């Protein structure tokens, strides 16, 4: 049987002075093989680690036992050749997070030089259920089984052949499994990037062994700016930010419902609501909506944008930033409370304190009359892990991070495969069609729309708006569509209608939000086109004019981006009605500066890489006993020797054995 698995990939980096590995599960180039043993309770491990007579074992592990305690017992023993994990259903009630207790530790703003008392989560442990499994090095492959039918096939094979009888080992033949997931990269980013460099320098056909994690940040502005020029130094811009990537222990399994999707969906809804205000183009300050990629991996996207601003490679400078508002995890609020986090170190600066105080007051006042209550987390507590920290490393900027937690995360499944729609309480009535589900407004959508409304109204005030803000209202219907598309099914009618015709292939069934090494990834594309759809304008241009704005009079291509999108299906046919969208949405590179600077061991910038591989597969089969294998080998050798001797004898006596007898009636004269 060949199974479809999600595997634990090799992704490595150098951190501080010690090379670390993310989800590093080494595998033999020819595959790893072992006798299957099902582990459904901790006592079952005794057979694998000590009692079982047929090592090495390939373990089928119940998802509820996939934790640090169990994996540390398996790590380092030669009696385990691999691990297949069946996903736990329902989600583990105790929580599960393979990330660190202090996410992105060492790459935020707090260090021995800036707020040392807050460094390394000394004051607040943000992710208390974090096990750090994603940062351990395992010398055997680890696969995830999501399909219950495949899990049952393996269990049935185990029950038929491998179940111990009365405490003694089962008889042959035994059911075995082989996993193929050989990774080309080794040790660390420094090692693999050096090998890449040597290959590229001296080899005619270089073979790359690892690639940097990279993608694109998505950004747009309330008022158009020249994307190829520079904003005037006097122009003040408010940055609204969130991250759009997530992660789990397993490659390409990154639902990120609470850790990423809840915040960037709220951000998108706030952008739409603010753009609908009548006087946005006359506001004193501009607003920049920013969606960072790669933030899970030591702030790749935000550190790159700060770097580009410092090097004059971005339209904005750090000096243009008036204030910073970040949406973090916002879906799991206790009651109606949303917490406002500020930096206690910059708070000591009187001028920054005044601006932060004004920012907090505007946010609090914007929640009056809404079903959201904003409260201050306190000045003695540091900022939670956030993109804002990378901007603070560059300069003191007034800013606030909005979260649903005052201290430790409410999210018990941070950076795991269990951070699913169920984690943020998304529920639908039974019997709905896909189209009805897309349009059904959930309680979660209503709740996030309320947060988006408060944020949009606050941004309006921060930008200098003086009119009544009651008309600024986020649309729960838009929010529910986005939640469905980004968490349940990307290939839906709304997403189909707002993307370019040549991008239909990005609409996979199961949404994932891993940053990857090939870019842009699906999430980046979709955030780009959703933002353009919600904040842009439909313009009366032909396809030719839309695709070539340089040749179109008054297109102002330096200020706007143009996209020819598929449009919705015509009600009376199967054809679509395409149209042209003009927006201020842009992409900027989200590649760590460490790779441009060739500082592969940097402690200033992220240095995450992903290993390359060629073949990922698995199979189960029956194996015979060693004795039978030896007997088969000996008999085979004996037959071979006998065949060689017989061939030699026949060849030597060929003239006798194969001579043609004379005809007795023949007479010679």
From TrEMBL:
It is found in: Membrane. Its main location: membrane. Coiled coil: none annotated. One of its GO terms (cellular component) is melanosome. The chain crosses the membrane at residues 630-650. It is a single-pass type I membrane protein. It comes from the Eukaryota. GO terms for biological process: Notch receptor processing; Notch signaling pathway; protein processing. Keywords: Glycoprotein, Membrane, Notch signaling pathway, Signal, Transmembrane, Transmembrane helix. It holds the Pfam family Ncstrn_small. SUPFAM superfamilies: Zn-dependent exopeptidases. Residues 28-185 form the Nicastrin small lobe domain. InterPro entries: Ncstrn_small, Nicastrin. Belongs to the nicastrin family. This is Nicastrin. It comes from Anser cygnoides (Swan goose). The lineage of its organism: Eukaryota, Metazoa, Chordata, Craniata, Vertebrata.
